[in-house]
Transmembrane protein (Mycena maculata), 317 residues
Amino acid sequence: MRMPRPPPLQLQFDNMFPGVRPRMQVKSLFTGVYLSNWRMLVLCLATINTLRFFLSAMDDLEVDIAQNNLALAGVSRTLATIYTVACGIELLGALGALLQRRAIIRAYAYLAFLSAAFITGAGVVTTAAYFTFADELLQECVALATEGQLGSKSLFRGDPWPSDPLSSEDAQTQCLDVWSSESVSQVVSAAIFYFLPSVFYCVVAYVYYCQTTDATHPASLTGRGSAIRLEARGGGAPYNALPDMVPDAAASVRPEPAKRRATVSPRSYQTGVAVAPVAVTSGSSLSPGPPSFSVAADPRAYQGFRLFAGPEDDTFI
């Protein structure tokens, strides 16, 4: 019966130097955060971004076309293209984190930089259009405010934009006042709501990719890190179990009965039985075939050979 292999020996510092106390290792905050698995974080963020970018893609384009505002429709079409590409990248990241495929995760880690650049560019385009096409925005605001549909465009949703139907004069006054008061917040929002979240998503995607390539990390997807991950998660020793350690295999695999070997008494070797050496017969004529062998006829060839039974009989005569 084969014995199971013992777990690997875990040597501590005090085993080698009992009189010396090891110095405590202080882990940094980033190290503690890095050791955690970021898979669920990447999956949640990628899914949220996919839905958010998908809803923002065609949000304002229909309104601009219905109001026959070609300048704002061109801006909305550009933003729709940007959000569609970013939506595809985030969808790729969500699939990579869900399926845990290294190739998809690696592609998403590099495409996340492109997605961050696109989203930052969308914020810059939105801010630039807010000032460049100010007249078109005010006309659209007045038209939607008189109809009571100001919330149909994403820029005019929420306070301080009016939500109730207004007359033409009141709509012009309030739209102009709100546009002037929101100029500063529009510039700040490009950095807070576009640039900083994009950088955060990009860093999260890259750190998760580093975790999947780190063989000592629990989130590693490398081949040689599977045993280390098993030990880190408390799954057992970092090697495959022997058949004796597996309950099903132990019941099915039965050791074959060992064949009994013929035992010879040590006394039988005391007779001095010699092994006959093989001699090559030499002849005058050479044959193309292999040489012929025969037992040497000279009795002196047997001298000097003797089998022994133990250490006490290991002399050579």
Notes: The radius of gyration is 42 Å. DSSP finds eleven helices and two strands in the chain. Strands lie at 278-280, 293-295.
